[in-house]
Design brief:
Elements: H1 2-14, E1 43-46, H2 49-55, E2 58-61, E3 63-67, E4 70-78, E5 84-87, E6 93-98, E7 105-106, E8 111-117, E9 125-128, E10 133-138, E11 145-146, E12 153-156, E13 160-168, E14 181-185, E15 194-201, E16 211-219, E17 230-236, E18 241-247, E19 252-254, E20 257-264, E21 267-272, E22 274-279, E23 282-287, E24 294-298, H3 300-303
Antiparallel strand pairs: 1-21, 2-24, 3-18, 4-13, 4-17, 5-12, 6-8, 6-11, 7-10, 8-9, 10-12, 13-16, 14-15, 14-17, 15-16, 18-23, 19-20, 20-21, 20-24, 22-23
């Protein structure tokens, strides 16, 4: 109930916001807004239905939701130490049976290979999987001689991924705490957001890179995250509060001249915006957009080259 009350109060404040009156526009093309002095800062661009289709324009509604301030870090996916095993033989021998290969999913205690010791009179020995997971390396072949130094199998369990991220020596470093909630995104899976938490933080900075390693565990039951994959982490650093958010790709321009396009039928309103916190792939908008506004997320780059037309001059008798 408290959360709902905060959101309703926040929404009431947003409704007090006003936008500059738009100018009517057409489908002309010119320099991108902000590139010339005489281009209006805010205006409405009107496109035909065919032009909208040709541009492939897509929109997404701005959302009012409870979000927390966050720190963005780049990370690399790895496997937790306790979920990784290298399987070897304790003696010299010859492979007589192979029961698993690369890509197989095995359970703990499942037979992997049968080896006949080279010592005369010794019975064949079966080697079992020490952990559950997927076989990522498989060396044995029937008839092959092996030694204790040979790694026969590597098995990893990636159902929970360990992500290692580097945090630079900035004021934001102090806000990262073990147990903090984390949202993970990857360019390999657009739109996918996985959740996790900060597991631990190194006790000292790297003396050369001046970075601190942050270890994050992420639920990966679908096994989409692969070892060594690069990802982006959004680590929550404060209390969740109501915020108007839109996809980050909807924001155009440079610092001091940021804007979005909001669709209303065949009209596209170019609005200057003020940004707040970033939450993963979503961006808080402090002013310029209201909840449920249809913000352009695809085709916005082409729209910025359309020129708003000037209002028709008044006729005098």
């Amino acid at each position: 109930m408290a959360s709902k009350t905060k959101i309703m109060a926040f929404y009431s404040l947003l409704l007090l916001s006003t936008f500059a009156a738009p100018a009517i526009a057409h489908e002309g093309h010119a320099e991108a807004p902000g590139q010339t002095d005489d281009t209006p800062a805010i205006g409405v661009i009107t496109l035909s239905t065919a032009a909208i289709t040709n541009l492939g324009i897509e929109t997404e509604a701005a959302k009012l939701e409870e979000m927390a301030p966050s720190v963005m870090l780049n990370g690399v996916v790895d496997v937790p130490p306790q979920a990784y095993a290298r399987v070897s033989s304790r003696f010299d021998g010859r492979v007589t049976e192979v029961k698993a290969t690369i890509g197989d999913t095995v359970e703990k205690g499942q037979p992997l290979v049968v080896i006949e010791p080279l010592v005369l009179g010794s019975a064949p020995v079966t080697i079992y999987a020490p952990v559950a997971g997927r076989v990522t390396t498989s060396m044995p072949a029937i008839g092959q001689n092996i030694t204790p130094s040979d790694v026969l199998f590597e098995i990893v369990d990636m159902s929970v991924a360990l992500v290692k991220a580097q945090a630079y020596e900035t004021p934001a470093l102090a806000s990262i705490k073990p147990g903090s909630s984390v949202h993970l995104t990857s360019r390999s899976y657009p739109g996918m957001v996985l959740t996790g938490k900060v597991e631990r933080i190194d006790p000292a900075l790297d003396p050369e890179l001046r970075t601190l390693t942050v270890y994050v565990t992420v639920d990966n039951k679908d096994l989409k995250l692969l070892r060594h994959m690069q990802v982006v982490l959004s680590i929550e650093t404060g209390e969740r509060l109501p915020a108007v958010t839109i996809p980050r790709q909807a924001v155009l321009g440079t610092d001091g001249n940021l804007f979005v396009f909001v669709r209303n039928g065949n009209n596209f309103d170019r609005r200057d915006v003020t940004l707040g916190n970033r939450f993963g792939e979503r961006q808080e908008i402090i002013s310029g957009v209201l909840p449920d506004d249809q913000v352009v997320t695809v085709g916005q780059y082409q729209l910025q080259f359309a020129t708003p037309s000037k209002p028709a001059a008044a006729h005098t008798e």
